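Write out the 3D structure for:
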Amino acid sequence: MSSQKKFCPVPFDQQPLNEYKSLKKSPLFSFSATDFKTFVNRLILIFVGIITLGLSVTIFSLSLSKLSVHIIVYNVLCALFSIEVLLVRLYLGWSYVLKRLASASIFYEESGWYDGQLWIKSADILTQDRLVGVYQVEPLVVRIRSLLILISSIVVLLFIFLFLFS
């Protein structure tokens, strides 16, 4: 149990620090909390896997002679779009936890959506939550946002390439 239990009426799973810990342990979000090199390597591995799958399906459904640059670019776009969707999900999850960690008051549900309460954090808990938010979660959000902007730019450039050369 959390040491905050005696001070905090918020259910254990809805406490921002516990939300952060559970998100960090979840399979989808845990790899984004690793160092930057490992995170990018796993994204590249996912990208290569999607490209391989897409090109395999394309080659088996069409003959190899019908494979063109446009089809390859479409496969790359599909893989990049998949990475974008993953990054958006990571961004939304981490930014939600960051918002709850930085907030001075927490909205929580005791037993259902109809009986929500608002709890004002004590100074100690607020300080602890904000430190975790600033030093643990905010760098992840910034990193994911930067990668999302980079990949979105690449997608736009590929669309421009397809538009100009089709």
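The chain is about 70% helix and 5% strand.
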